[in-house]
User: Fold this.
Amino acid sequence: MQSKALPAGTTLCSLTSRGWSSMRTKTLLAGALAGATALTLVGGCAAKEIKALEPKLELRNAAQQLSGSQQAGFTIKLSGKPEDLIAAIKQQEKTDGTAAADKFGTDDETIVKQVFNSSFTVAYDKGGAGATDDKSMLAATIDGVTGTELRAVDGTLYVKAPVTDLAAKFGAKAADVAAIREQAAGTVPGLSALFDGKWVSVDSKELTGLAGAEAGVPTPSAQQEQVVKELTTSANNLLDGATVVRDSADDNHIVVTSSTVKAYTEGQRLADTLLGKLGNELPKTAPKDRPIVMDLWVDNGKFTAAEINLLQFVDGATGRVAVRIDVASGQPIAAPTGATKIDTKSLAGAMAGLPTPK
Assistant:
């Protein structure tokens, strides 16, 4: 237990944890009395003692609590200054000897700044027993434009997006967007509602059957379960052999020090498992081994946030650019009202570039 919160000899918790050995050297009667007193006090201070002495245990318990939650939500974003990340990327190019044609340019810098101005929120609601009633949600703020959302509820996919605003944000002309809207509406009846920023719905089972049954397309709930499983495995792997300490200035802040090689290995494993062929495109050479710090926040046994500074992986980089995950308590995910139903045959045909099936 930290001395600033509990000066030695001033509380019953400190007496129990620090003074028990000396008390046992007294008479049998006094020892028995002390034992009875300790049992009474453990309920009041054990959680605090464990929190101070075993941050690694607290992290494992928080991970188990999160993986067992019926409902949860996560918001993912970058924190820091985009200029620091841009400088680090250019520094890495010098180290790697990147060819002039592949160097980081003005357009790339614009994309980095757009990513810093974006965030993604993922949530799930497991409902009852089994996976048939699992629900999930993805909401995105894209370069400051809010309103893009996808929900999977009871076998139906619901989607809405501020298409016109997003198109304008990325330089599309209003006349071009209107022409695409008209063409889409003629090919897939009801799709114009999506261009108007309204909810549309698609029967995901029908769409899977038409567009990808042979490929074994997983259901959203199956994907979600796989992601949670793999993230939990990586978290446990990173904790093994890591140094875990509590921030003396913040009881809820836990600092985990591992290594770049171990973090890279887990990142590569996750990419191979969750991204498939795309994961194979990532660099296969681990970075130079050095200590790497991850910041985690746990409050009352529950994860509230996590950060990792990306610039730790780049030699000579300065500043801090962190991937931050904020964990929120979950809530029920419901189907939106008033969604326009999209015919799956029309949509599958349009996606395949084929005439609409009759």
